[in-house]
Amino acid sequence: MRRDLRDLRELPGAHRGGLVLVACSGGADSLALAAATAVEAPAAGLRAGLVTVDHGLHPASATVAATVLEQGRGLGLDPVRATRVDVGRTGGPEAAARTARYAALRAAAEELGALAVLLGHTLDDQAETVLLGLARGSGTRSLAGMPAVRGPFRRPLLGVERAVVRAACAAEGLEPWADPANADRALARARVRHDVLPLLEDRLGPGVARALARTARAARDDADALDEIAAASDPFTGGAAAVADLLPARPALRRRWLRAAALGAGCPAGALTAAHVDALEALLLDWRGQGPVHLPGGASGVRTCGRLVLSPGAPPRGRTPQTS
After folding, report:
1. pLDDT for 112-126, tens place per residue?
2. What is the chain's Cα-based Rg?
3. Residue 314 binned pLDDT confidence (cut-offs 50, 70, 90)
4. Running DSSP on this structure, what letter comes out for residue 297?
5. What is the CATH number for 280?
């Protein structure tokens, strides 16, 4: 598993004592990552630290966070830090916790001057993400799963199976924490983990998780290429584009333009679905003088005077039916 961390040597600031942080919940995946980073980061000329996020969602959360800090110190990581967050409700419990966690990790990285934050997502997590994206019907980007690198975040274990990291914890004498949320079938990811993936492995044979991870890599390559083409040819300026420029475009490009414009109008990425993009596209392909499309985050899209306009905040009052 340590060889999966060799890319740390390519970080700007490697060999000069730069800091990398491990985001550690105390679970087996992130705890194994912390142990491996404690060895591999110094070999790459880096310092290794740890940050744990206390979501405050269960009575023992503060105790768990304290235990994680103690484990981090025992591994020789420095600095080690716990940060408490308030979890909102937007997008459901899983999305709200994720939003709060990533904001806290990003803030910790900026405060400590870290070069990167390492996340312990494994190949099995990637397979679950692909299945969840498939269920949402959100297109190629959703099937692409989690990226190995995005901004300050790196996921070096996406090619490592969960069983391997659990074995690594056992070999190192580490006692991971079992988050009860991971077994809560009220949560979609827990149902995929404990019910859907095992059923697929049973009915289709072993290797389903690895095949789904390969699908994610292929989908990401395709999505990245199309995103680059779409960005270079995007007709939207200031949140508006001429209908005449949008209609002739290939659907794969047009839908990317619409999604990018919606995000630019303030739609939260995690709340913007394919159904919202469908509704915007209907203003082009199924135009009957309909009013504005309401989008997450209070944004809206409306067709007026031969243009498609996406706006933040409250939707425009009334409507202006057009024939163009």
Report:
1. 999 999 999 999 999
2. 22
3. low
4. G
5. 3.30.465.60
Question: Is 29:125 a contact under the CB 8 Å cutoff?
Answer: yes
The Cα 100–Cα 124 span in angstroms is: 23
Contact 144, 223 (CB under 8 A): yes
Which residue range is the domain that position 278 belongs to?
234-311
How far is it, in rounded angstroms, from Cα 105 to Cα 116?
A: 10
Residue 213 lies in a domain: no
Helix or strand run (H / E) with residue 39:
helix 28-43
Beta strands 240-242 and 307-311: pairing type?
antiparallel
223 domain-assigned:
no
Q: How many CA atoms lie within 13 A of 302 on its CB side?
A: 18
CA 187 to chain centre: 17
pLDDT band at 91 (very low <50, low <70, confident <90, very high): low
Please provide the size of the chain in residues.
324
pTM of the predicted structure, to 2 decimals: 0.84
Both tokens of residue 104? 């806290």
Q: Write the DSSP string, 54-94.
A: E---STTHHHHHHHHHHHHHHTT-SSEEEEE-----TT-HH
Which residues belong to the annotated binding site for ATP?
A: 25-30
pLDDT category of residue 315 using cuts at 50, 70 and 90: very low
Same domain assignment for residues 165 and 305: no
Say how far apart CA 240 and CA 32 lie, in whole Å.
48
At a CB cut-off of 8 Å and minimum separation 6, what does 146 contact?
A: 121, 125, 126, 129, 155, 158, 216
Q: Is residue 131 part of a domain?
A: no
Count of domains forming the chain = 2
- State the Cα–Cα distance between residues 64 and 61, nearest whole angstrom: 5
Q: Is the predicted pLDDT of residue 202 greater than 90, yes or no?
A: yes
What is the arithmetic mean of pLDDT over 12-31? Answer: 90
> Annotated binding residues, as ranges?
25-30
